[in-house]
């Protein structure tokens, strides 16, 4: 927003404007110089009117629509290659090149229900349009947490548009909207019978490694994306050391290497999968020698190079054929974290699950009240005697 800087001694009044630099800092740019204060104030008033919301928000080609700007954002930012140095023009400015970001952007561009938003001109957008978007998503039975994640993608896009299209005197409407209340953290824990039913359904599915992936997620609390990037060189189930996984920093979500202990059930699954892999490799070698065909699978990866999206789609199809209700793949991480919390302290648990924020770890740890009571009585009175005894 333009403002006047007074230099009365030199009879000089500069009109300046704060401009945000690509590195995140701010600088003042002189727009024009006047010799009287009245002329400077008049220029600021006219400039604000001329560049107000809905006025002259454009490039040389004319006004910019929401969908057109979003396509450019998708190409120049989300799909732009990241330099080897790890930097970039918009590095650390709030955007993330993730599956969630790409999904939201594609939906905003292609969805027929959101045509009204795609045709909007950026300069004419206000917080009322964002409120309308929120109401429309709520009418489609979308949870508040999902809507907030979508707004977390739209907001940095609008900040990028304001900088790119020189939209002066225009504020990001997402910052002024009333966001929906986020949903409560999920606390779904599988019973033994439900786990067995899901494992049997996974075995009947067409995915050869889905059951193993399900067991790994339940036993190690590993993220789905990290599991898909796991290589056999990261799996240490032989040798003098206890079975564990060494996740490389380039494969983790937080870009920090960490080690994960392998439970007996997970160890058995790794051993069975390794044997299946050896048999499959021999079969592929035989087919390639006879047909000159290439390998179907990438045997360096534990899950044969499958993607996180493919696992999610296959698991949803499997769950549709079971009687288990209200259980998603990400709930495996809740189950594993709750179980591991009985064995490890909080700091140790955060190292295993990869949580850098203890508040986030608390969302995943959902112990049952009866379990906590059992631990107290086991420490107070192992024979469950009613005689009061000190805990310490």
Question: Care to describe what's here?
Answer:
With 392 residues, this protein is mostly helical. The protein is elongated and about 85 Å long. Helix 3 packs across helix 6 (144-164), helix 7 (192-204) runs antiparallel to helix 8 (210-220) and helix 8 (210-220) runs antiparallel to helix 10. The chain folds into 3 domains: 2-50; 62-176, DNA polymerase, domain 1 (Orthogonal Bundle), CATH 1.10.150; 192-374, Orthogonal Bundle (hpI Integrase, Chain A), CATH 1.10.443.10. It has helices spanning 37-50, 66-78, 99-110, 115-118, 127-139, 144-164, 192-204, 210-220, 224-228, 264-291, 308-319, 331-340, 346-353, 358-364, 369-380, and strands spanning 2-7, 12-20, 26-34, 58-59, 62-63, 235-236, 244-247, 258-261. Helix content is 47%, strand content 10%. A hairpin with a 5-residue loop joins strand 2 (12-20) and strand 3 (26-34).
């Amino acid at each position: 927003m333009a403002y006047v800087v007074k230099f009365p001694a030199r009879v000089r009044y500069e009109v300046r404007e704060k401009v945000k630099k690509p590195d995140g800092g701010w600088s003042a740019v002189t727009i024009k110089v006047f010799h009287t204060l009245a002329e400077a104030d008049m220029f600021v008033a006219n400039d604000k009117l001329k560049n107000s919301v809905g006025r002259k928000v454009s490039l040389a080609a004319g006004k910019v629509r929401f969908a057109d700007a979003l396509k450019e954002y998708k190409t120049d930012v989300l799909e732009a290659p990241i330099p080897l140095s790890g930097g970039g023009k918009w590095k650390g400015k709030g955007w993330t090149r993730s599956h969630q970001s790409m999904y939201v952007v594609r939906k905003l561009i292609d969805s027929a229900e959101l045509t009204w938003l795609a045709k909007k001109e950026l300069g004419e957008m206000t917080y009322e349009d964002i409120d309308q978007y929120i109401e429309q998503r709520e009418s489609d039975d979308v949870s508040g947490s999902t809507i907030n994640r979508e707004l977390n993608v739209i907001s940095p896009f609008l900040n990028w548009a304001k900088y790119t299209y020189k939209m002066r005197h225009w504020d990001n409407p997402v910052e002024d909207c009333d966001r929906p209340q986020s949903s409560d953290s999920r606390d779904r824990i599988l019973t033994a019978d439900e786990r067995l039913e899901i494992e049997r359904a996974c075995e009947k599915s067409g995915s050869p490694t889905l059951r193993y992936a399900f067991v790994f997620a339940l036993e190690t609390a590993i993220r789905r994306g990290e599991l898909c990037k796991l290589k056999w060189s990261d799996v240490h189930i032989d040798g003098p050391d206890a079975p564990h996984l060494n996740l490389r920093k380039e494969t983790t979500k937080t870009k920090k290497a960490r080690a994960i202990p392998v439970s007996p059930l997970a160890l058995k699954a790794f051993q069975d999968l390794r044997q299946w892999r050896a048999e499959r490799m021999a079969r592929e070698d035989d087919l390639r020698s006879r047909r000159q065909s290439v390998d179907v699978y990438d045997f360096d990866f534990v899950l044969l190079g499958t993607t996180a999206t493919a696992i999610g789609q296959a698991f949803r199809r499997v769950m549709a054929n079971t009687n288990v209700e209200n259980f998603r793949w990400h709930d495996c991480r809740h189950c594993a974290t709750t179980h591991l919390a009985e064995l490890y302290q909080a700091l140790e648990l955060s190292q295993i699950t990869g949580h850098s924020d203890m508040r986030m770890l608390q969302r995943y740890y959902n112990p049952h009240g009866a379990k906590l009571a059992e631990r107290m009585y086991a420490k107070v009175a192992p024979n469950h005697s009613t005689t009061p005894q000190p805990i310490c």
